[in-house]
Amino acid sequence: MSSDDQQRSDDHQPDFDPALLDLHLGRLSPPEADALRIRILSDRNLSQQSAALAEVFAALQSHAPQPPADLAQRIAARIAAAPVLKVARADDRAVESLEREPHRIFRFGSMRDILAAAAAIVFIVGVGIPGVLSVRERNMRIDCSRNLQLLGQGVQQYASVFNSSLPFAGWNPSWSWRRSDDPSVQTQPNRRHMYKLLAGSTVNDPRLFICPARDHVPMRKDDIARRTDFAESKNISYAYFNMAGRRPTLADDPSLPILSDDNPLFDDGLPLYDLRRYTLSDAAQANSRAHRGVGQNVLSLDGHVRFMTSPNVGVAGDNIWTLSNVADYTGHEGPQSATDAQLLK
Questions:
Q1: 17 — alpha (psi -120 to 50), left (phi > 0) or beta?
Q2: What domain count does the chain have?
Q3: Neighbouring C-beta atoms of residue 220, cutoff 10 Å
Q4: Which of 182, 210, 215, 249 has the largest count of CB atoms under 10 Å?
């Protein structure tokens, strides 16, 4: 990857941890807020980000505009100077005739009133509704990021018990993580490794595996103990590190991506070669579909979650959707180096 591409990838990184915004807006629960404040005290970069946000919120609250002393008199004078509204009385007989009609009649005022009403409707539809949708999408993105962060804590707890290893449900070279219609192929989806967190009660809430921006459903709690994998692909919204090759540990590069919004180039392990892929202007640079293709939340090995607007956010600009030097995916491939990340379900 060129240095210019790497620079563009770096430019996409946000200036602050999304969880800090929740903290300053009071959206975190008391335990979450306390945990984040402890991190701020021990993390200089996080502390600087928090201080910068605090200055921004302080600036927003510092200026309280004062109304002019004569505001009431000025309003009264404007009202007194306004021209008298002329109301044209409709012909009573015409009104009675119209009101006898079986359907309802709406009476409008002047053309200027009609144009003003039309302009207001256009403004609401063109500005108000997109604004509301934008706020809703941002809230879902933040909630999605929070779920990833909590899953990251589960990964850390799992690793502390299993000698710094990440959740792993076993792998045999004869297995395939790619879906197949061939009955002789034993399919083992990559998502089943994340199921270890749920089955082992490291993460107790199946809803944490769901991104609010996706039309997905959490695993039924009464099914968890009876299974070794999620019941269906829609029980998990996130793509996990491909565990069919070299598997990472906590000793690897802290910036290594291990979990993110779903891979746009694969559907439940199956490479996409249908219309969903061909409609992408540049498949290699596609973002997850979870957030309208704008970007994806990415959890790194050190537990940080960032919203990235490019897939080239791995170690040294590695693309998190694909494996290095692999063009055709059969379901047996996996990372061959400590810095080659591929995230998929």
A1: beta
A2: 1
A3: 12
A4: 210
In a domain, residue 81? The reply is no
Interatomic CA distance for residues 67 and 126, integer angstroms? 31
The residue among 100 and 40 whose pLDDT is bigger is 40
Under a CB-based contact definition with an 8 Å cutoff, are residues 167 and 193 in contact? yes
Closest by CA position to 293, among listed 257, 265, 269, 331: 265
Rounded CA separation 263/239 (Å): 6
Listed as own residue / partner, the contacts of 4-10 with beta carbons closer than 8 Å and 24 or more positions apart are 5/312, 5/317, 6/312, 6/316, 6/317, 8/310, 9/308, 9/310, 9/312, 9/313, 9/317
In a domain, 57, yes or no: no
Which amino acid is present at 20? L
CA-wise closest residue to 240 among 188, 298, 327, 200: 298
Query: Which of 330, 324, 338 has the alpha carbon at shortest distance from 258?
Result: 338
Domain that holds residue 314: 3-46+129-344
Going by C-beta distance under 8 Å and a sequence separation of 6 or more, which residues neighbour residue 130?
A: none
Q: Is residue 109 part of a domain?
A: no
For residue 10, the model assigns a pLDDT of: 44
Q: Which of 252, 267, 308 is nearest to 285 (CA)?
A: 308
User: Which residues are within 8 A (CB) of 317 and not within 5 positions of it... i.e. 6 or more apart?
Assistant: 1, 5, 6, 9
Q: Quote the tokens at residue 167.
A: 């959740």
Q: Whole-model pTM?
A: 0.61
Write the pLDDT tens digit of every residue in 13-44. 445 677 877 787 777 777 777 778 888 888 88
Q: Which runs of E-coded beta strand occur in 104-249?
A: 238-241
Residue 51 placed within a domain: no
Q: What are 222-235's pLDDT values in tens digits?
A: 999 999 999 999 99
Place of tokens 């792998």: 171
**Looking at residues 335-345, what average pLDDT do you find?**
94
